[in-house]
Amino acid sequence: MQSKIQVGVLGATGMVGQHFVRFLEGHPWFELAWLGASDRSAGKKYREATVWRLEGSMPDRVAELTVEECKPGNAPKLVFSAMDASVATEIERAFADCGHMVVSNSRNHRMEADVPLLVPEINPDHLKLVPLQREKRGWKGGIVTNPNCSTIALTMGLAPLVKFGIEKVLVTTMQAVSGAGYPGVASMDILGNVIPYIGSEEEKMECETQKILGTLNGGSVTPLPAAVSAHCNRVASVDGHLVAISVALRDKAGIESVRRAFDEFDPLPQRLNLPSAPKPAVLYMEDKDRPQPRRDALRGNGMTVTVGRLRECPVLDYKFLSLGHNTIRGAAGAAVLNAELMRSEGLI
Amino acid sequence: MQSKIQVGVLGATGMVGQHFVRFLEGHPWFELAWLGASDRSAGKKYREATVWRLEGSMPDRVAELTVEECKPGNAPKLVFSAMDASVATEIERAFADCGHMVVSNSRNHRMEADVPLLVPEINPDHLKLVPLQREKRGWKGGIVTNPNCSTIALTMGLAPLVKFGIEKVLVTTMQAVSGAGYPGVASMDILGNVIPYIGSEEEKMECETQKILGTLNGGSVTPLPAAVSAHCNRVASVDGHLVAISVALRDKAGIESVRRAFDEFDPLPQRLNLPSAPKPAVLYMEDKDRPQPRRDALRGNGMTVTVGRLRECPVLDYKFLSLGHNTIRGAAGAAVLNAELMRSEGLI
Amino acid sequence: MQSKIQVGVLGATGMVGQHFVRFLEGHPWFELAWLGASDRSAGKKYREATVWRLEGSMPDRVAELTVEECKPGNAPKLVFSAMDASVATEIERAFADCGHMVVSNSRNHRMEADVPLLVPEINPDHLKLVPLQREKRGWKGGIVTNPNCSTIALTMGLAPLVKFGIEKVLVTTMQAVSGAGYPGVASMDILGNVIPYIGSEEEKMECETQKILGTLNGGSVTPLPAAVSAHCNRVASVDGHLVAISVALRDKAGIESVRRAFDEFDPLPQRLNLPSAPKPAVLYMEDKDRPQPRRDALRGNGMTVTVGRLRECPVLDYKFLSLGHNTIRGAAGAAVLNAELMRSEGLI
Amino acid sequence: MQSKIQVGVLGATGMVGQHFVRFLEGHPWFELAWLGASDRSAGKKYREATVWRLEGSMPDRVAELTVEECKPGNAPKLVFSAMDASVATEIERAFADCGHMVVSNSRNHRMEADVPLLVPEINPDHLKLVPLQREKRGWKGGIVTNPNCSTIALTMGLAPLVKFGIEKVLVTTMQAVSGAGYPGVASMDILGNVIPYIGSEEEKMECETQKILGTLNGGSVTPLPAAVSAHCNRVASVDGHLVAISVALRDKAGIESVRRAFDEFDPLPQRLNLPSAPKPAVLYMEDKDRPQPRRDALRGNGMTVTVGRLRECPVLDYKFLSLGHNTIRGAAGAAVLNAELMRSEGLI
Description:
The structure is a homotetramer. By secondary structure, chain A is α/β, with parallel strands linked by helices. The first copy, chain A, is 29% helix and 22% strand. Chain A has helices at residues 15-24, 46-49, 60-63, 85-97, 129-137, 149-158, 187-190, 201-212, 255-264, 268-271, 293-296, 328-344; strands at 5-10, 30-37, 67-69, 78-81, 101-104, 142-145, 166-174, 215-217, 220-222, 227-231, 241-249, 282-285, 305-312, 318-324. In chain A, the strands form three sheets. A six-stranded parallel β-sheet of chain A has the order 3-2-1-4-5-6, with helices on both faces. In chain A, strands 10-7-11-14-13-12 form a six-stranded mixed β-sheet. In chain A, α6 packs across α8. The longest helix of chain A is centred in the last third of the chain and has 17 residues, at 328-344. Chains in contact: A-B, A-C, A-D, B-C, B-D, C-D. The A-D interface holds A 55-56, 191-192, 238, 294-295, 298-299 and D 54-56, 191-192, 238, 294-295, 298-299.
């Protein structure tokens, strides 16, 4: 792989877009060469069009790029979509139609039957939907999505237990404010408080989890036939969605087997040495009070999901905690890892 | 009831003790007349012996009382115990032996077979254990306890549903820092963070709930034969423990019946007009994002438990939220309400 | 005073308007009878037009009032203005022109030469501007304003020292998020952070302080000829603006005299027993680490300003802290106290 | 410089000690080879003796080192002291006496006449006190100190203005909780609050600043004859002390000159390319609301001090903000940079 693949970001000036800009900086395979945003920003330098809200500075090279309209014309073949759900549907389809591979963080196409909802550590075979998608829709390109930021912490925590047969999942989330974008949650709402409601989040977690853990059957995914129930809450943390999981398993494995499954989990992206695949993918922490959002979300450059406190559950079988960095593993990093797998599989 | 009943507080200088001092101020039945604390404080005025950590000022009248040793001699018949668990066992027993009625917030005696773990709205009949306790232990007084601060939010939220037959309970807590006393949780641990562990809290919630919702059979309580599983977490709120509950019911009641049960809940303390019994005992809030700790914990002077977001649970039957003020409904106020019921029942 | 005076609130559905609604509930002189808001809300019940964001519930009686357009027609003679600065200028003038007395929390008219910027404890004589204002503008009513929420903590803290001759004031604020309204400060900006900038706040504090402490000379106020310099910061507190003050005095009083001045401060509203005048107006706390926003802002129902830590300043003469509740003493309560003084002086 | 210099840390298991361990990891000149702690920890592996409280993991290599008693015997020549003030005096002297160079973060020896209070960007010549210290005390080694964590943000912010002649400094701090160590500030004290008091902090800032900016005259430092006044406050941020500074200058430079001075500041450690010397040492941020603790404290690996909002001060001459990372630039990083300068000057 001599020269880098040029990539673009749709919706580059928003918060998720900024996360893509930062995550792609210094990437060994991809070079950010194109920035798309609303008409209001088009024609300006990225530096002028963007209020940078992340820690540290905007990368100098990107700052000087000129923002373009979100039209397929001159964009690179591979584009990451950080677009707001209110506009993503039509634009992503237009790009896919014109031959672009759209690796999207937006929720719009996640649940469509021919669109992979991809987590490379869990369901890399779902990429086989892409040729079917092209055929069915008459597209030259395609759309591949990553899950919602809270779903990723849940499904990655569950992934090592899939081999025992997951039958029921009850999860309660404690989600960081960065998950709501900017300005997002009002400080009057969250200081010294918990908001026990996030619009559509519970529904998304429940159905996305079933699709991600589902089985590819011919041309579509059969959802995992497991009951999934989510309680979603916003708490006063900045980064990192922590989820408390209870799970019922078909195979009544002993706690030592379950504990060992976390250590033995060795999924494809890690074996392929994909650049953004963290090692380990899932880290079990032995301490009695971990994982914790502020202390653990950034492990593995924000790509490792940390779990802990595995114990028996008096209602289902086991209970434990899982933590994922919502803007990295749950957004920009997830999409980039998806693209790396697609590159590795020859789809890009 | 012409003149007030004199009462004392064991462990009066600590955080829980301060909550008793504040809650008893202006009480229509009880007058705080005696303060017990460690030898180090005995002999000093309360003002001198205490670093007041609550909002507002120490009540002037109490500030001038002289702190005494925690010995039964001159204390009033009715004493509230705010003692630390490390010393409560022997001292509470010594007081009970000498004819004092000890209404305790400490955990030490809660799970003993002949000691009521009392929530007046739920199990007022458990007070019938007191005569048995006296007989068995040869005490002239007795010990009555209230539950842990997180258990109360759970059991009060469940109480209106008891009539449907509770079979399984899965609860995840988001608990305020005031529940850990002073200095309690280090700010380095909680700012922008969640601590997914509170020592012994899950075990306490599970077994206390079964006892509170249990049935008095002859001389002891048969625990509710329901599986109870708790995930306990500390979050960056100041007051108010919020709990997310999923519950399985024996009678498969429709959601309207369950919803109505919260409004129809009309327990004994409210019918008796006990001074600290809030009306309503349990308030169902219709808003989509309530209850919230900072905005709702103080309803009903901190004695009303607020619930909300009742919806069907894909794993068990229903899920909803419950919130209780941990230092009022979950500590000082709970014990005072216990004493009011005991007075009403002629036990004091 | 047999029957209550009917009053209205302009801008009743916003955050400041909600504070007026709550503060006026149960007022012994005034009865809230009229609510004005934008065209969008007019015609609806207050309950329907308003997302209530304060702790506790919307007062039942007010909830049933119908919101009206902000037009002078049917409103009571006395109206409190909680209007946004973007619209307040014209509407307040229209009401004053039609014979209403507008007691405004908006910043728009504060610095006009014939408009009192009133703090009843400090400059009650500035009310003499009202007749001149009427004459000059041909109004049947008038406009009286209260200062910005941070200015009040500064000027009330300084008020007891006015007798020593204030020559220089250097103040650094640590302001609560509620001062920015709703949604106001984004949680992403303030969690674990300080924002060292609040638009126009420093300029307001500097010039408002000079006017409040200024001298009425014939038909206008001569500003206090003291240099005032402000550093304004937003911190992660909910209510209460804390300000650190250094001051140079003309009379080189000893520290005991200065300390005593806080205790001896006995201004007019307290001597008149105005209903919202707290006693004391300014409370000096002896503890080494007070006042603190969360623990002290609500003293005197949020109307007492607390000060502490008086000590010598190596650069100016003395330094100390002052704390005022920004939405009560710094907004709704300030305006109501202004109206009480005006009633007492026969202006209403 | 072929092989690395072995170094030790006194007080290695505490919070400051952990910061040294982390900061020294991968250092190009120094290799952490020796860990001293209390008798209780001596003999254990660092992994066993330490509850690691920093983000990320304890470095593997250091985790396996055996902790030793804090006695001079086998320790390397160069030791960093992270000892608690309660024990530092005697132990640091014992090490200096036995030929060790003690580069200390403790406050104990900072204000002694023959001990450098060193900030390499400001007063590198103060190192000339070391030979005098040896001679006077008969030591074979010596002690060099760095300032308090809030002093560093102040003095580095002032350093570029020294050339204009600093005559008066008035500073108000907003300090992060990590400055208080562990457990440090109770969460009950700081959530939604500000604590306007930090024991001895104001005195330390005032006198340390005068010494750091003072002039070496023969065998001692003549303090800067400038009045310095500090207001110190604890706020709910995790890392980064933000200080609001007003300053009076002898040379009445225009604001453009003062602004330029920040950009032109080019001190010795940066010219020497010392490994921990950040570039720039002081970064002026143009944004209207910066620097901010959470977003800017980590610039330059936590070693760059960020300043902003330079404007005229109505009371003194100019006002601006300065921010330093308290546990890096204000503790471990400061000491390591001191040692790098000492190595560069041939003192180690």
